[in-house]
Design goal:
The complex is a heterodimer. By secondary structure, chain A is of the alpha/beta class. Chain A folds into 2 domains: 4-168, Rossmann fold, CATH 3.40.50.970; 184-311, Rossmann fold. In chain A, 39% of the residues lie in helices and 20% in strands. In chain A, the strands form 3 sheets. Chain A has a 7-stranded mixed β-sheet. A 5-stranded mixed β-sheet of chain A has the order 9-11-10-13-14, with helices on both faces. In chain A, strands 1-8 form a two-stranded antiparallel sheet. In chain A, helix 7 (141-153) links the parallel strand 6 (134-136) and strand 7. The mean pLDDT of chain A is 97. By secondary structure, chain B is an alpha/beta fold. Chain B has one domain (9-278): Rossmann fold (3-Layer(aba) Sandwich), CATH 3.40.50.970. Chain B contains 10 helices and 7 strands. Chain B has helices at 9-33, 38-42, 45-55, 79-89, 129-142, 162-172, 193-196, 202-208, 221-233, 266-278, and strands at 70-73, 149-154, 178-184, 187-188, 191-192, 212-217, 238-243. Chain B has a 5-stranded parallel β-sheet, with helices on both faces. The radius of gyration of chain B is 17 Å and the shape is globular. Chain B starts with 8 loop residues before the first helix and ends with a helix. Classes of the chains: A alpha/beta, B alpha/beta. The A-B interface holds A 26, 46-47, 49-52, 54, 56-57, 59-70, 87-88, 91-92, 95-97 and B 66, 70, 112-114, 120-122, 124-125, 128, 130-140, 142-143, 162, 165-166, 168-169, 172-173.
Chain lengths: 313, 282
């Protein structure tokens, strides 16, 4: 059984590890349990700033620190980063193009019990719409750790989308390499269709591809960790070579990965598409797996939708 | 380092004369742009002039000098006053003032730190500047730098809740290197501040958030300089509450909310410029 760890904890803990040998960044915290970074101040008291339950000020002050040449990581829940402090991210981080990494945790329906108020289902749509912003989402703890290293060296506004609950590792830490703006081919069974996935649902896509293979449908699965800028080349290659694309994400079907891929496909190489994600309604409390099923995001639903998609070719 | 704490009568005279130039620039550039915000620019002239021409430790030849004092114009719509000061201080050719708000101008309708030399922070959406100032003041402490961060806010602007998040944080983080300057001209876009949303008792509000408060007459240069000097010596973040007149220096603009955001006609410009020159100290 593969190791399990939440992407948020993997990212946060790795950042603390990196900070031991890299002095070139600071952390700004709100009063939330996000990704383990709330302990950053215990190890590096001078490099951590607490702003309490005040996310707009959190982002504004981070912008001020960045405007003085500091690399800033700020952490809060994705709902608050993308909506409570939306304008501060847009106008004071993205517009002046400052070196702030926004860590948004508790993304998507996987947040489970906390329910709709705390489940960020529209954050990618919001963040993706800002000029200068880069949006990235790791699929497991291995990718999250690698991303922490990449983020430290990144220049400019960056949104890192992380999930609350542990997921099984898909990647091998020995071989995984994170590359900005590049899709990673995880499964390459053939050319019947392509699944493009961002985030923790990658595991479901891989499982669905295995079932589909047994049924004679050969699927390519791409991990699109960087949602913006999108790897257009990989998307078009998939459209041309496999003729059908399904996107899968723990986010509303409006404005996220599905929209990003559609924008490329429809303008360059139209092929049948299926966008798997959260339907046009809010989340609710409950077991995430049951909620995923309800939105057609479980493995069985993905298999059924994939068959229907291939039939459209 | 130059000691800017003190000023002489000669300094006061020089700054008063500079203020006359700045007022004329404000009127001319808004007239040329056919749009802009004269009211809140004119109310802030003495303060912004005092900062750029006497108080702040800055180097126009090196606008990004890491140890410079910072100025954030949180009431960013009043940028004509800052642009005029930056130009006259030597950050860029005053010819640029004629291009305010035009396509590809270095002078945007609200301040842009990447387009205008000397602008320390992008601003304009009200209520945000003090938070950014908190970040800049924290950075000074982190890197053991002794620069000051000045943030100018409007009295209408402080109706924004985020200002008070920042006020709380400045006290919590003990930012005595941060000064908030509130331009209390009493007027916002649709009328008197106290009719739209009362902000008084202002001094009590800031004190209750742990700030020192200094009050001054924002159109008396000596008073302005004294307030800035006092603010530097305080043991807490300091709020300078400066009492001003919106549209100060142009009779038909004074205390008139309609001049919050309108440009003078050709005739009004001539009248305004002549009033500024006549009312001047020279």
């Amino acid at each position: 059984m593969a190791k399990t760890l939440a992407t948020r904890m993997a990212f946060g803990h790795e950042l603390i590890e990196i900070a031991k040998t890299n002095e070139n960044f600071v952390v700004c915290n709100a009063d939330t349990k996000t990704c383990g970074l709330e302990k950053f101040g215990q190890y590096f008291p001078e490099r951590e700033f607490s702003f309490g339950i005040a996310e707009q000020n959190l982002v504004g002050a981070s912008a001020g620190l960045a405007a003085c040449g500091n690399k800033v990581f700020l952490a809060t829940f994705a709902v608050f980063a993308s909506m409570r402090a939306c304008e501060q991210v847009r106008t004071f981080v993205c517009y002046p193009n400052l070196n702030v990494t926004i860590i948004g945790t508790h993304a998507g329906l996987q947040v489970g019990g906390d329910g709709a108020t705390h489940a960020a289902i529209e954050d990618v749509a919001i963040m993706r719409s800002f000029p200068n912003m880069t949006v990235v989402q790791p699929a497991d703890a291995v990718a999250a750790k690698a991303l922490a290293h990449a983020a430290v060296d990144f220049k400019g506004p960056l949104y890192v989308r992380l999930h609350r609950n542990p997921v099984a590792d898909l990647y091998d830490p020995e071989t995984y390499k994170f590359e900005w703006g590049k899709a990673n081919t995880v499964v390459d069974n053939g050319t019947d269709m392509t699944m493009i996935v961002s985030g923790i649902l990658l595991k479901k896509a891989v499982d669905a591809a295995a079932i589909l293979k047994e049924q004679g449908i050969n699927v390519r699965v791409l991990d699109m960790a960087t949602i913006k800028p999108l790897d257009k080349e990989a998307v078009l290659k998939a459209a041309k070579e496999t003729g059908a694309i399904m996107t899968i994400e723990d986010h509303t079907i409006f404005g996220g990965l599905g929209s990003a891929v559609s924008e490329v496909v429809v303008q360059n190489c139209p092929v049948p598409m299926e966008i798997v994600g959260i339907q046009d309604r809010f989340g609710e409390s409950g077991d995430p797996e049951l909620i995923y099923k309800d939105h057609g995001m479980d493995v069985d639903s993905i298999v059924a939708k994939a068959k229907a998609l291939v039939a459209k070719k | 380092m130059v000691n800017h704490f003190y000023f002489t009568d000669k300094d006061v005279k020089r700054l008063e004369n500079q203020a006359i130039q700045i007022r004329q620039d404000i009127i001319s550039m808004i007239h040329a742009a056919k749009a802009g915000h004269p009211g809140g620019s004119l109310s802030a002239v003495e303060m912004v002039t005092a900062l750029y021409f006497h108080v702040m430790n800055i180097d126009p030849q090196n606008p990004k000098w890491p140890d410079r004092d910072r100025f954030i114009l949180s009431k960013g719509h009043s940028c004509p006053v800052m642009y005029a000061c930056l130009a006259r201080r030597g950050y860029f050719d005053p010819e640029h003032l004629k291009t305010l708000r035009q396509y590809h101008s270095i002078l945007q309708g609200h301040p842009d730190m990447n387009k205008t030399p000397g602008v320390d922070m992008t601003a304009g959406s009200l209520g945000n500047g003090l938070s950014v100032g908190v970040g800049m003041a924290l950075s000074a402490k982190l890197h053991h730098q002794d620069y000051m961060t000045y943030v100018m806010l409007g009295d209408g602007e402080i109706q924004e809740g985020m200002v008070w998040e920042a006020a709380m944080a400045a006290n919590h983080h003990d930012l005595k290197n941060l000064v908030a300057i509130v331009d209390c001209n009493g007027v916002q876009i649709n009328g008197w501040v106290n009719e739209i949303m009362t902000v008084e008792p202002l001094a009590d509000k800031w004190r209750s958030f742990g700030w020192s408060v200094v009050e001054c007459n924002g159109h008396n240069m000596k008073d302005v300089l004294t307030a800035l000097h006092t603010a530097k010596t305080m043991r807490h973040p300091t709020a300078i509450l400066m009492r001003t007149v919106k549209g100060k220096g142009v009779s038909f603009m004074e205390d008139e909310s309609k001049w919050h955001g309108s440009a003078p006609s050709d005739e009004e410009m001539v009248k305004a410029i002549s009033e500024i020159q006549e009312g001047g100290v020279v």
